[in-house]
Design a protein that fits this description.
Blueprint (H helix, E strand, L loop, with lengths): L7 H15 L6 H17 L4 E6 L7 H4 L3 E7 L2 H10 L4 E4 L12 E7 L8 H11 E12 L1 H4 L18 H9 L2 E9 L7 H5 L2 H9 L3 H13 L5 E8 L2
Parallel strand pairs: 1-2, 1-4, 2-3, 4-5
Antiparallel strand pairs: 5-7, 6-7
Helix pairs in contact: 9-10
C-alpha cells in the first residue's frame, strides 16, 4: 500500500536535522545491535571485495564499517550530512537524493543494506523492487526496520513535519519481501520499552541488580525470551534476490 508522502525538500530538511542531532556524534544500542547483526551476516558470506549499497546511510556511520568488506556506496536524502560523511569516510562513495529517483544501475551490487528506512518510504513494495533491481542474481538484502508491535508498547512522539512513518510487523514484512526475495532469516532484536511491565524488566537498574547478584544469565534469558516473542525493537531480515 502506498501512502501520501511529504514533499521531498521537507523530508530532506527533517533528515538533515535528525541525523545531525542523533547520528553524527553518537549511535544508540538499537543501531549498534543492527550493525552487529549485519557484520555477522557479512562475515558469514566470507567474501571481500563486495559491491555494497547502503540505502538510507544517514551520517555514514555504518559505511565506515562496511568498507572492510568491499566497495561501499551510501545514499541518503540528507545532503548536508553526506558532505560531512564524505570527509569522515573518504573510502566510501556518497550520493545524496531521493533513492527512488536515483540510478545505481541494474544488477551492479552484491549486497544492499538498509537500516530503519522502510517505515519512512511511501511505496514500500516499490522500495523493495528498486533495491532488487540493483542487486545481482542471488545478491543479499540486509534489512533492519522498526517492529510495530514493540514500538506500539512504547510512548513515542508523533511524526514531525517531513517525517513519514509506517511501521510494519513481521507478517507484513515477510509479505513485502517475498515478492522479490527469498527470506533466509527473520527475527527481532533489542527489547526496549519506556512504559508498562516491560519497562521494568528492561530497566538498567533491574539489569544492574541481576548482575550484582551474580546472575547476568537472568538478563540474557529475559532479553532472548522477548526477542523470541517478537518484542525486539528491530526486525532483522536477511534475504536473497530471486533468480
Amino acid at each position: 500500500m502506498q501512502i501520501a508522502q511529504p514533499p521531498i525538500p521537507l523530508q530532506q530538511a527533517f533528515w538533515n536535522d535528525w541525523n545531525a542531532a542523533h547520528r553524527e556524534h553518537a549511535v544508540d544500542v538499537v543501531s549498534l545491535d543492527q550493525a552487529k547483526t549485519v557484520g555477522g551476516w557479512l562475515e558469514r558470506i566470507g567474501r571481500r571485495g563486495l559491491d555494497i549499497l547502503e540505502v538510507g546511510c544517514g551520517s555514514g556511520w555504518l559505511c565506515s564499517q562496511l568498507t572492510a568488506f568491499g566497495r561501499v556506496t551510501g545514499t541518503d536524502l540528507s545532503d548536508r550530512v553526506l558532505v560531512r560523511a564524505a570527509e569522515r569516510v573518504p573510502q566510501a562513495r556518497f550520493v545524496a537524493g531521493d533513492f527512488m529517483a536515483l540510478d545505481f544501475g541494474r544488477a551492479t551490487q552484491d549486497v544492499a543494506v538498509s537500516l530503519e528506512v522502510l517505515s519512512h518510504v511511501s511505496d514500500q513494495p516499490a522500495f523493495f523492487g528498486k533495491i532488487s533491481s540493483h542487486l545481482r542474481p542471488g545478491g543479499y538484502l540486509m534489512l533492519a526496520t522498526q517492529n510495530r508491535p514493540a514500538l506500539e508498547r512504547n510512548n513515542i512522539a508523533p511524526p514531525r513535519p517531513g517525517q513519514l512513518r509506517r511501521w510494519v510487523d513481521r507478517h507484513e514484512l515477510r509479505a513485502l519481501l517475498e515478492a522479490d526475495f527469498v527470506i533466509e532469516e527473520l527475527f527481532s532484536v533489542t527489547p526496549q520499552f519506556n512504559r508498562g511491565l516491560l519497562r521494568f524488566l528492561n530497566a538498567p537498574k533491574a539489569k544492574r541488580l541481576a548482575a550484582a547478584a551474580g546472575l547476568p544469565v537472568v538478563n540474557t534469558a529475559i532479553k532472548k525470551a522477548q526477542e523470541r516473542a517478537w518484542l525486539g525493537w528491530t526486525l532483522m531480515a536477511l534475504a536473497r534476490k530471486r533468480g
